[in-house]
Design brief:
alpha/beta; Rossmann fold; about 190 residues; globular; 6 helices; about 20% strand; 7 strands
Amino acid sequence: MTVVVGLGNPGPGHVRDRHNVGFMVLDEIAGRVGTTISRRAHHAHVGECTIAGNQILLVKPQEFMNRSGRAVASVAEGYGISCDRFVAVYDDLDLPLGRVRVGRGGGAAGHRGVGSIIDHLGGQDFPRVRLGIGRPPLDTDPAEFVLMPFTGDEQSTAQTAVERAADAVRVLIVEGAERAMNAFNGLGGDAPAA
């Protein structure tokens, strides 16, 4: 089983936040395979599906971003899943809006949700799919910026990135991290649909 964890903040007040693109990607994946992410378990909303014969658990932690690792650790313990069987999907301030980047391992790079996962799993060797949300304007605190929705002009680009990230998750699961990195980490972030 592969566990795909989308990072975000729970509650209706955060649905459109830039910080919630991880949840948006999981919703996109669930919509494509005709499942829901609604069962409550492991401090999260979870859903199950199959992608090209691979059993997938979709997980949206329901504690705030900085405590995402608690849900991930509960899933790891409950299912007996090792660190490398998790895929984390989350926002990245350091990538331009709309860019999708696939990677494996490494630190948290200042992302507290990822830091929480690393702390709770006791390892960092898991694949990641990052979505660029852009840098905040000079007069805006990054902590406030991530809790803002995409502007009207940004929404189309953000939605395209969500769809591409869902494609990247599929390629990562079906064909492996190296193929996904080769396909999605190009200069423009463009990649063929999976």
